[in-house]
Amino acid sequence: MNLEYKIMDQTDFKRCAYELIEAFKEAPWNENWTFEQAYTRIDEIMSARVSRGYVIYDGDVVVSMLCGRIMTYLDFKELWIDEFSVNPRYQRKGIGSKMFDFVRSELKKEKDKITYLALNTEKGFPSVKFYESQGFRVEESNVLMATKV
């Protein structure tokens, strides 16, 4: 592997969309994203001045991508991670950990101190153990709620 780490920009969106499709079509997610849906999702997340995105390439293949928004909450800032994925062919090879090392390194360069990383994931999925290995903890006092419009 010849890994290249970079800050995501619009030229990466197409390849990141294909990577998102590949990553989430596998179990346990079993999601069927179209290219248009995946591209739109990334474009929407990355459209704000507070948006941040990170990509790892192996040659011209996106092996991992992470994008989200830097949000202020009271007296601190956090990177709220909206999407994170690792190409299934590269999973269990340390790529996810390398991505979080890269993100933390880049966030230390921000003008304002970023105190936390935050995200939502599915209970019982393998992603929970991975995130815990990266220092995340389940916030038992929080409840994610949703309703139809």
TrEMBL record:
Pfam families: Acetyltransf_1 (PF00583)
GO molecular function term, any single one: acyltransferase activity, transferring groups other than amino-acyl groups
Annotated SUPFAM superfamilies: Acyl-CoA N-acyltransferases (Nat) (SSF55729)
Domain N-acetyltransferase: from-to ranges: 3-149
InterPro entries xref list: Acyl_CoA_acyltransferase, GNAT_dom
Domain of life: Bacteria
Keyword line: Transferase
Identification of the protein by name: Acetyltransferase (GNAT) family protein
Source species: Clostridium tertium
